[in-house]
Write a structure and sequence with these properties.
Shape of chain B: elongated
CATH topology of chain B: Four Helix Bundle (Hemerythrin (Met), subunit A)
Low-confidence stretches of chain C: none
Number of helices of chain B: 6
Order of helices and strands of chain C: HH
CATH architecture of chain B: Up-down Bundle
Largest interface: A-B, 47 and 38 residues
Strand content of chain C: under 5%
Oligomer: heterotrimer
Helix content of chain B: over 70%
Number of strands of chain B: 0
Mean pLDDT of chain C: 88
Distance between the termini of chain B: 53 Å
Low-confidence stretches of chain B: 1-17
Chains: A mainly alpha, B mainly alpha, C mainly alpha
Chain lengths: ~575, ~210, ~70
């Protein structure tokens, strides 16, 4: 309805022209903001804070394991430490960072939208996050959960009050995650720029599209499991207690029905980051765009059908174990398709090894390794021997740290210039990568054979035969942590003194790079029209309507009368 | 050539001329609300799975020592709730055709029937707890599953009764027009959802 | 004295027939309406009609868990 320039452009009068006035005041701009970019940054800051806290807990674990007789913390404290470490990393670090953090900032820009579908709900979703984190860490004051992040009954029924606090905290972050899933799904389905069909969407958006239904559906199943555990602990309602007719196996089914899709929530957006970073720094179109896009959806769907592979030693009948084993094997197929497509993207390209690219390439190596050990674990006969050992710990750290966390680092180095208008320090970035990469492998590679040799997980003391590799692992972890510290120093430094970045320091082709860094609050002066895939480096940019974005032309006037 | 083009058949978006912004935001709100209902279905489905899992332990249902549920009373109560679904449907129909008084009457009928259902549930709970001595925590998995699921459903009905009351008051205030009444559509969807959940719960607790 | 159990059954059967019939009628009338929300309404009306039928059958003692199998 408002025509602000003489520029020839069709004004639909719809959402694209519905612009709120710019928020005024510190609180409205940076604290209670409904702007997806600010909310995304809030998620990222909070997520990194919890990364530090949870990483500290990890170092408590590794320090305890320097000696076979332990002694750094008491055995009970040790149980609390690894339980909160796992819970925080899954629910307070990785999931919020990949969905609420990078998903929020990048996805609406990449689809040419002005914001997400439900901005106020987005803000609500964010503020549940620090509250849930506070609740989880406060459980240390009342006897933190001790049964691992998986909280199996009967142990979780018998433990101290912190376990109930854990239930409430994870329930809250689960609501946040579910709402974000709904928000993103509606946004991607309905708010893409004109001309952006599904097969012209960037792959990061495909990743968020595949992840959003998981966030929505799977997380609600977890809410039910948590609510039941809470009700049983607080009110004595029997669900899981076998002496009252319940079943511990029921918890395992309900928990893993969520938690297996949860690992795909954690990794699919990281796949999306890789799909953005690799073509940009190979100066080549992504290989197999449709393969990667559809395999994301396939992984998301198949992810719902394999949960019992976490339960092979729980007494399931063999006729149940077999289909889960086979279905788990088949998830390797779409995943492998992606890995091959990414490698083919690199092939013959002009590779620029920026920090983001280093982490992306490192991801390919480490995630593949983690995926292979996953296939080992999918085989029931093998799993029966290594379930509950350090082999499993090694596997999931390879895919979650070598996979998701490296993807997050890559994403940070890649999109930091867009978020802040400044470049991160490349020297520190490369140092971060190498210290982290070497430290990470030193920490977790030996854990594979520690597990096969028989070292169980979640133990504060261990058989002395495992000493030397545990020490090697712990010292390597200190190296890895030092690398992460460099990353945080880099972040904080670069916000203040980083080199000014232009709109498109990497020469990338998706829509977020065609507007200033950082973007205006309204994102685009004019919503562009999209004519093709962004990745075809040999063609001009497939957009029209963007010529005013980097000029001093005034932005669109607010179409709402009065202050908001 | 907007991707978020005018949706087909959105009755409260076409009548009396095109309001592009309203039509587009209505589509967003509709899909968001439907996805919320989907997640609520998943919540109930998870507890229903737990109930069926517990029942599959093979000891017969109801378990030994617990009396059976009053199927006839529950059937009556179900009819009350289903009736409120029918009145809700016609309330919305009347609104769409501009018959405010009939709409208001039918809304009031819906609210009363919904409250009556809750009363019926209260009566059933009282009977179970005090006469049959079947309690939430003290009757094994039977009490756990029955009271948790019907309680969750009852809570949804309770919220629904409040929601419909507020919608009625808002419509009296004139917040909704003949063309723009998405709040009423959402309320109707929610109320039907509550009904449908009860069809499932009634069947799995009382009939099988 | 009013025979409450019998009254309950009568109301359940009669009510089930009425509600089920009304829902089915509404479904037939609105069958051709386009759009996502109308599709959801039609689905819900169909399930409501089913509910009415089930309640009626329960009232007639045709369906129901009557204790130990």
């Amino acid at each position: 309805m408002a025509t602000t320039t003489e520029h020839e452009h069709e004004h639909s009068g719809g959402i694209a022209d519905h612009i709120h006035p710019e928020p005024q005041g510190f609180i409205r701009r940076y604290v209670f903001s409904i702007d997806h970019k600010i909310i995304g940054i809030q998620y990222i800051i909070t997520g990194f804070v919890f990364l530090m806290l949870s990483g500290l807990l990890a170092e408590v674990i590794r320090t305890q394991l320097l000696h076979p007789t332990g002694g750094f913390v008491s055995n009970d404290t040790y149980n609390e430490v690894y339980s909160v470490h796992g819970s925080a990393m899954v629910w307070l670090v990785i999931i919020p960072l990949v969905t609420g953090g990078f998903g929020n900032f990048v996805m609406p820009l990449q689809i040419g939208a002005r914001d997400v579908a439900f901005p106020w709900l987005n803000m609500l979703s964010f503020w549940m996050f620090p509250l849930a984190g506070l609740m989880l860490f406060s459980s240390f004051l009342m006897g933190a959960p001790v049964a691992g992040w998986t909280e199996y009954p009967p142990m979780s029924l018998q433990a101290g009050p912190g376990t109930s606090m854990w239930c409430a905290a994870i329930f809250l972050i689960g609501v946040s995650s579910t709402l974000t899933g709904i928000n993103f799904l509606v946004t991607i389905l309905r708010m893409r720029a004109p001309g952006m069909t599904f097969t012209r969407m960037p792959l990061f958006v495909w990743a968020q599209l595949a992840t959003a239904p998981l966030s929505m559906v799977a997380t609600t199943a977890l809410a039910a499991a948590l609510a039941a555990l809470f009700m049983e602990r607080q009110f004595g309602v029997p669900f899981y207690d076998p002496t009252k007719g319940g079943s511990p196996l029921l918890w395992q089914h309900m928990f893993w029905f969520y938690s297996h899709p949860a690992v795909y929530i954690m990794v699919l957006p990281a796949f999306g980051v890789i799909s953005e970073v690799l073509p940009t720094f190979s100066r080549k179109p992504i290989f197999g765009y449709k393969l990667i896009a559809f395999s994301s959806v396939a992984i998301a769907l198949a992810g719902f059908m394999v949960w019992a592979h976490h339960m092979f030693t729980s007494g399931l009948a063999p006729y149940l174990q077999l289909p889960f084993m086979i279905l788990t094997f088949t998830i390797a197929i779409p995943t492998g398709v992606k890995i091959f497509s990414w490698v083919a993207t690199l092939w013959g390209g002009k590779i620029h090894f920026t920090s983001a690219m280093l982490f992306a390439v490192g991801f390919l190596a480490l995630f593949t390794l983690g995926g292979i050990t996953g296939i080992f674990l999918a085989a029931v006969p093998f799993d029966l021997h290594v379930h509950g050992t350090y082999f499993v710990v090694a596997h999931f750290h390879y895919v979650l740290v070598g996979g998701s966390l490296m993807g997050l680092f890559a994403g940070t180095y890649y999109w930091f210039p867009k978020m802040s208008g400044r470049m991160m320090n490349e020297t520190l970035g490369k140092l971060h990568f190498w210290l982290f990469f070497i430290g990470f492998n030193g920490t977790f590679l030996p854990q594979h054979w520690l597990g096969i040799l028989g070292m169980p997980r979640r133990v504060p003391v261990y058989d002395p035969q495992f000493t030397s590799w545990n020490q090697f692992s712990s010292y390597s972890s200190y190296l890895m942590t030092f690398g992460i510290l460099l990353f945080f120093i880099n972040l904080l430094m670069s916000i203040r003194t980083g080199k000014k970045a232009g709109a498109n320091p990497w020469g990338a082709r998706t829509l977020e790079w065609q507007i200033p860094s950082p973007p205006h609050y309204y994102n685009f002066k004019h919503i562009p029209t999209v004519y093709g895939l962004p990745y075809d480096f040999s063609y001009p940019l497939p957009y029209s309507g963007l010529d005013q974005e980097l000029t001093d032309a005034p932005g669109p006037a607010s179409t709402l009368a009065g202050a908001h | 050539m907007a991707v978020a083009s005018l949706p087909h058949g959105a009755p409260d978006a076409h009548h009396g001329g095109v309001d592009q912004l309203y039509a587009e935001t209505r589509e967003l709100r509709l899909q968001g609300f439907l996805l919320f209902l989907v997640s609520d279905v998943v919540l109930f489905s998870s507890f229903i799975f737990a109930y069926l899992y517990m029942r599959s332990s093979g000891q017969g249902w109801p378990p030994p020592g617990i009396g059976r549920l009053d199927v006839a009373f529950a059937a009556l109560n179900s009819v009350v709730l289903f009736g409120s679904g029918a009145t809700m449907h016609y309330a919305l129909e009347n609104w769409k055709h501009g018959h405010f008084n009939r709409y208001a009457l039918l809304m009031v009928a819906t609210i009363i029937l919904g409250a009556a259902f809750l009363g019926g549930q209260g009566y059933e709970y009282t009977n179970l707890i005090y006469n049959e001595h079947v309690t939430w925590a003290g009757s094994g998995v039977f009490g756990a599953s029955f009271f948790t699921l019907t309680g969750m459903h009852g809570f949804h009905v309770f919220v629904g009764v409040w929601y419909l009351t507020i919608l009625l008051l808002q419509s009296v205030q004139g917040i909704y027009t003949k063309d723009k009444y998405f709040g009423l559509t959402a309320g109707t969807l929610y109320w039907h959802f509550v009904d449908v959940i009860w069809v499932v719960l009634f069947s799995i607790f009382y009939l099988i | 004295m009013i025979n409450f159990p019998m009254l309950e059954r009568v109301f359940a059967v009669v009510g089930g027939i009425i509600v089920g019939g009304v829902a089915a009628h509404a479904l037939r009338v609105d069958w051709k309406t386009p759009g996502l929300d109308n599709a959801i309404f039609k689905l819900m009306l169909a399930l409501l009609a089913l509910g009415g039928v089930i309640a009626m059958l329960a009232g007639l003692n045709v369906l129901g868990n009557f204790g130990k199998a």
